[in-house]
Design brief:
Layout: E1 13-19, H1 23-28, H2 32-40, E2 50-54, E3 60-68, H3 70-74, H4 81-84, E4 90-96, H5 103-113, E5 128-130, H6 138-156, H7 164-178, E6 181-186, H8 189-192, H9 196-202, E7 210-216, E8 222-227, E9 229-233, H10 242-245, H11 253-267, E10 273-283, E11 295-297, E12 303-305, H12 313-326, E13 331-336, H13 340-346, E14 351-355, H14 358-370, E15 375-378, E16 395-396, H15 405-414, E17 422-426, E18 430-431, E19 441-442, H16 447-458
Parallel strand pairs: 1-3, 1-4, 4-5, 8-10, 8-13, 9-10, 12-16, 13-17, 14-15
Antiparallel strand pairs: 2-3, 6-7, 7-10, 11-12, 14-17, 18-19
Length: 460
Amino acid sequence: MSPTFAAADADAIPLHVIAEDQLENWLDGQPDAARHWLTAQGFTGALGQATTVAASDGSVALAVMGYGTAKARKRSRFHLAGGVGKLPKGVYEIASGLPKEDQATEALGWLLAGYRFSRYRKQSPLLAELKAPASIDAQYIEALAAGETLTRDLINTPASDMGPPDLEQAARALAEKHGARIEVITGDDLLDQNFPMIHTVGRAADREPRLIDMHWGKDGPTLTLVGKGVCFDTGGLNLKPGGSMGLMKKDMGGAAAVLGLAHMIMATGLKLQLRVLIPAVENAVSGNAFRPQDILTSRKGLTVEINNTDAEGRLVLADALAYADEEKPDQIISMATLTGAARVAVGPDLAPYFSDDPDFVTALEAAAQAGADPVWRLPFHDAYETMIEPGIADLDNAPKGGFAGCITAALFLRRFVTDSPYAHFDIYGWQPSDAPARPKGGVGQATRALHAALAPLLKL
């Protein structure tokens, strides 16, 4: 269940947000008992600190939360979320100290701090509820939190319960919720309808490969989201070692991200025509698994030499991107947990992306900064095009040498989009350790930034 704000008419405890350099001034205005209590508690205003002050009858009179220093805030995000778990049960209302321009982001962080993945084990809920600040659009923030919750839940679910049929059901549930229409092409029908690489990658698994195709909206500019839905990746015949296979339930993180973003778009009623394409497969090992040095012919007609069966995500995305491009939408965006090279380049916290459109870059970077959803631009570096041209076929799915792996993967995908503006996100989709508003596990990346960027980009 997605976290929500407390009822607008609920009685609330006043919460004072106090930066370290404002603490002394704030304490000077408080009664002696409150001042002595907070001093005795060691409250300094540091990020992550939170405590309450009792009234004479023993009830909670007020709460305080540290807002740290400007330097500390710059090195983190969702600054209040680190303290909300330290507050006792109750409804809280921000009374002072939080700049108006930060209230929407901090309110979202509070909601995201309440996320719990409880499908397999009961989890203790967040006790402290927040009454939405009057300055924010509460329904908008709740829609963002719900989209993020969907993404996290899908990634956190193990492949035993999140195979291609389950991912299809998640998409169908989302479509039903928002009145979208959905079509799914499954199994050998993929061959009949010219999606050969999606079929080839997924044919070795017991659960059939499929292409999920969802449409929503009748007016406005056209946007197509393409998400990598590899529900588990063994590496295929180029089998991953055990240590590398341990997190492969998250290899459908691109699909989870675009479904979360689709929810945000539909729930907030953006005036556009949305299409979501998800090639959903498992990269398994069987007698009919595709092999190294096979040459595949894609939907677009380009031939691809397979030099590593563990570079399968770009293959299924290629057919889906070619299909998306046939409609010539105003914008195509792909999202995928595609390369380890992207993690080496920027680590787990940044979402690297590729775009040659200055308007896209400007809109996205502004939205990412404002919404605490960090991204980092990497280049479609044309000079590396020769690295993905093996000579025996049009394209190589896994260039030798290991250099610029995330860039060559992005260049590979770009070959399949020739008639539409295109941006690609090589996300990680996983939070490796607990952080404010981001517990260890599946996480959305760049989706909130993209949602905010769509209005200026598509002139909505």
